[in-house]
Amino acid sequence: MVELGNAVKGFSGLTVLTLVFLVASVSVVLSNRTVSRRSRRVFICVLLALFCIAAIDWFVVATSGQYPELRVFHAVCMALTFAVAPFLPVAIANAIFPAKYVRWMFVLLVAHAVFQFGSIFGGYVFWIDESNTYHRGPLYVVYMAVYTMSALYLVIESVRMGRAYQSSIVAIVAVLACLVTGVLIQVFDNTVRMTWPAVAMTVILFFAYYSDMVLRADALTKLLNRRSYEEFIARPKLPCVVMVIDVDDFKHVNDTYGHAYGDECLSTIATCIRRTFGMAGWCYRTGGDEFAVMLTRRLDEADAFAVSLKAAVARVRAEDERMPSVSVGYAAANATCTDFEAVVEAADKAMYESKRQEKVVVQAK
Fold first, then answer.
1. Backbone angles phi, psi at 328, to 5 degrees
2. CA 240, CA 75: separation in Å to the nearest integer?
3. Does domain 6-215 have CATH number 1.20.1070.10?
4. What averages of pLDDT result for each successive group of 10 residues across the chain (365 residues)?
5. What global pTM score does this model have?
6. Residue 348: which residues within 8 A CB-CB, separation 6 or more?
7. Every domain of the chain and the residues it spans
8. Which CATH architecture describes the domain 226-364?
């Protein structure tokens, strides 16, 4: 029977709460139908791994300083924990936004895992004394460096994902601050076991953030969807410029080249829109071949932005003559605007006028 001191009893309560939280988190992920099945599987695997690590961590703390016969088991548990922990941020990063360099990260992490298990015999990162008490080794900094690199990888990929989905980087930083706080508390005072509760909270917060981001995005183009567009119209950020974009003769593209190519065209045009306007406003797919941009910065450059977008699409058309052109119209809403829908309607009319004029020019040629 394991004898528990007062400090361990307190940690036991925290561990039980963490384990229950992880089980509840798994049920939340399982019931989610917003993110892909692949992403759900990865998050569930991460949560189950955390469940095992938290349980192992409790057992190690509860038996530390007693039961010398468990010394080897204690060392194996610590090596396993140190080996697995850096995998979790990389796994999450790859689940939400598959990256080019993930294979190299996993090679590094496998090498690190081998190094950690070598510490069982060499005591490089940690060692367990004759009384079954854990001590940090001279190369504990290696573990911290790899774990930090893994966390930074998640931060970098999260920022990349946030830009692709036009989501707030501040929210990502706030979520990851939970992880950093828990880890640093335990680094400076190993008697305060906060790492795994903090990691558990970070994972489910990240999943909630990711789910909301996916819910607000158009599945094909990754631009913000119609729901997000209507939310902006209901509560516009003023002043702004409303830009309406329509693909020219898109029905002809679908009828001639097929819907698969039509989807490819929409994705390509969406990429041009994101690259042109992404740093100055919010980009939406509002319908089949209809897009909109709410320009909230550099408002006086609306005409230049429209020219830049048409030029970007023209460059694509130069390489693929099947690619359709786009028509753009815009209207401005000042800071005192009280009828934003009228501004949207004006931008829509400007777009159709631009489309009409372009047809006249083409027919004249």
1. -130, 135
2. 61
3. yes
4. 53 88 95 90 94 89 84 90 91 79 88 91 89 89 90 85 80 78 73 80 89 90 93 93 94 92 95 91 93 93 93 93 93 92 94 80 53
5. 0.82
6. 244, 329
7. 6-215, 226-364
8. 2-Layer Sandwich (3.30)
